[in-house]
Amino acid sequence: MAERMQFEYNVDGGNFTRAGFASSEIKKILKKLNVDIGIIKRTVVATYEGEVNIVAHAYSGTIYVDIDTERIRITLKDEGPGIPDIDQAMEEGYSTASSQVREMGFGAGMGLPNMKKNADEMQISSEVDKGTEVEIVMFLHNKE
Amino acid sequence: MVKFFHHALKFRKEICIGCSHCMNECPTQAIRIHGGKAELTDNRCIDCGKCYMVCPVGAIIVEADDLSRIFDYTHRVALIPNILLGQFPEGVSISQICSVLMEAGFTHIFEVEHGTRVLEDEMIRMMEQKELPRPLISTFCPAIVRLIQVRFPMFTDNLMLLKAPLDIAAMYYRRKLEEDGASPADTGVFYITPCAAKIAAIKSPVGEESSPITGVINMDFIYNKIYTKVKQGLSGKGSCCLPAMQPLQPEEMVWSLTEGESARMPGRTLAIDEVSNVIEFLEKMENEEISDIDFLELRACDQSCAGGILTSGNRFFTVERLRMRAEEAARGNDSMIYDTAGDSIRDHSDYLNEHLKVTQIKPRAMDKLDEDMEQAMLKMRKVQEIMKDLPYVDCGICGSPTCNSLAEDIVQGKANVNQCIYVQKRWEQEGKLQPKESMEILKEIWGEDKF
Asked: For an interface test with A, which of B44, B361, B373 has the most A Cβ atoms less than 10 Å from its Cβ?
């Protein structure tokens, strides 16, 4: 039977001090599991972007990690304002971040596009005033 | 297990008292206590020397060459880093220091920092190549190169594949002597080192086939030799003439200090010293929390080489002296006496550039629980299970530095959960373990004589 592992991390909205904690934990796990360095790199970049999105825009969120020997699936689920126009949010440079957030070096409008660029698969669903769910999948063996 | 690295740090079992200071200090968790003695996991050790610094009984030694080895050669070159000159208090002149070296048997003295001139040119050329990854990370500090190999393998591609100033200085000087008619076989180049990592790098170079350095002599040994002679008034009358070279530039004199490299590189650069600071920073960088940096200078010791484990002077004074020397030199008053008819190392840059590069530096990741991912997952699950029984206190009484490292050691078959004193107490309470048995376990870890 194929091994499978699951992890869960809570993310607080507005807490930039802790932004990156979940991504860092996920990175440590993947290193221990001897996942290819390039895949770890892409996974961490994508997860970090998603984590910062939750911190910057949502009230709270959870990151679910599901790993087996074939793929890594990371689901970032938040309670927040939601995204009214996903296509627009996927455009590079589009941002609704406040000037406060931008001053902290976040909110350049590269988040979602950068996640997509680094993930093998990505799906977003969102409901305005409820929240957003982003799922990314990384394949561990070349599935081109 | 295949041994990746040569280590200059050796643990002397007969002296070790098993106090575990080194285990708690090691930044890569390479040390365990067993049978009352510290034991080193070779492939995790990066030769930073933190253990050496905290050992209260001198059980850790830095294996270098004996000074008498220089007499195997007709031409005996002392390759001295600027840090050596910064060891001595005011009143000990540079020419005194050099005179003692000559009296000790060296026939030539050459300053390592001459090698920075050609290196800097090449580094700037690399910085201009847009296709190279960012940030480019200097390979100046060999402990940092090893740290990246074992703990941050994803940054091995960012390492500038260039030799260190000491290799370049040695290559240059060998060639110069050869041009003057000296046979290469009769030439011995000896580096006076402020740290263990440099020795390890010379004895098993990372990404290089062979080293132009013949041997290494510890700086503390040379320091004592020089200072004794000076104190006894036996030296310093003669002045010493250095080889025909252009004098060192002020910026070259401070190359091995913090910001010595970063101040010379274009773009946004950053210098970080001390190994735990470096680890903290690289962990952030791995998460992509840090970007847009062009060049990183990373050094394992606090105050860079001035804080090298084989230095004798206070590192802050060393920095002050070297900066003062550089300031004086900028005003044209360097106290080093040069034979000013000298040539410039840049005249040989064609030859040196050909030999400046090192081949690939490979990742040596040590974090993985198993090569096979499925096995690694099984082991991780076991680690999680074991952690439920452990107290998260990281007391080290089990002989591993943290609860988590004990759990991993257990999973790798190198330890047993009953080594945990909390587990022992619980099991004694539950009648699963006799006090006598738990005493035996502790003796096995900490040695008979402690109880």
From this structure: B373
- Domain B1-63 in CATH 3.30.70.3270? The answer is yes
What structural domains does chain A harbor?
4-139 (3.30.565.10)
Q: What is the pLDDT along chain B (451 residues), one digit of tens a residue?
A: 456 678 889 999 999 999 999 999 999 999 999 999 999 988 899 999 999 999 999 999 998 899 999 999 999 999 999 999 999 987 888 888 888 898 899 999 999 999 999 999 999 999 999 999 999 999 999 999 999 999 999 999 999 999 999 999 999 999 989 998 999 999 999 999 999 998 888 887 666 567 889 999 999 999 999 889 888 877 655 555 566 677 888 999 999 999 999 999 999 999 999 999 999 999 989 887 777 899 999 999 999 999 999 999 999 999 999 999 999 888 887 766 666 566 778 888 888 888 888 888 888 888 899 999 999 999 999 999 999 999 999 999 999 999 999 999 999 999 999 999 999 999 999 999 999 999 999 999 999 988 8
The secondary structure element, H or E, covering residue B389 is: helix B373-389
Segments of B7-95 assigned E as strands: 9-11, 31-34, 37-40, 60-62, 75-80
Q: How far apart are CA B34 and CA B36, in angstroms?
A: 5
Report the SS3 class of residue A41. Answer: helix
Domain ranges of chain B: 1-63, 67-354, 369-451
Which residues 22-61 in chain A show a CB within 8 A of chain B? Answer: 23-24, 27-29, 31-35, 37-38, 40-41, 44-45, 48
Tokens of B183: 């046979």
* ipTM of the prediction: 0.84
pTM equals: 0.90
